[in-house]
Amino acid sequence: GRALELLGRGDSPYGDLFSLLYGYAEDLLFSAGEDGLSKMNGMLIDPLTKSQSGVEGELKLNGTLLDLNKEEVELDIWKAFADNLRLTLSDLSITGLGTLRGPIEALKPRSTSAHLLDNQLSLGTPNTPL
Fold it and tell me: Which of 14, 92, 98, 120 is most deeply packed, by most CB within 10 A?
């Protein structure tokens, strides 16, 4: 009908701006460079991690990130190990974040269930594990 008259395809009732922008971002960020790694590493990950930690591809989170403490453990399975449990996570450092490689997929609807989205990425290389 009317969409075809206006040079549209007729199958995008809400327009095609999002798919156009997504295609552009996919070509720009998700495609691989000459080294086989995603271009997103040099454009986004390396600058952000360098500004945060001073090292490209490294993320440092200083201080206590998680502190869980349970006194007088109630479950019998845990009582066999301890009367009190404490889990602390602090001063976390993650290296190798600048090794993002394909295949990369983000927000891809499943053909069998359109309300579910698939996301996929890989990190690390043989010489630079995560």
Answer: 98
